[in-house]
Amino acid sequence: xxxxxPGSQKGFIYYSKSMSMILWATESFNYLELQEILKVPKSFKxxxxxxxxxxxxxxxxxxxFTDLQIDFIEKKLAKKVVSIKFIIKKSFHY
Length: 94
Description:
By secondary structure, this protein is an alpha+beta fold. The protein has helices at 14-22, 31-38, 47-65; strands spanning 28-30, 68-77, 80-90.
């Protein structure tokens, strides 16, 4: 399989690659299912830590190293995040 991340650096982490691959399948995920798919460690199970260490890093890497521009919206039930919707656009300046 060809590297979908031309020009990627050593710091391009596993979560970034995994996120970019699964975003082709669907744009919205149940928060807990996404954590399971990505096999995040228990230390990332708290949403704010997951968002900081996985979602923001993956967003930064995907936007920098691919022809995609992504962002995400947290869907909440009361005050609890229950799902994440990704906004995916093709970058014209890549």
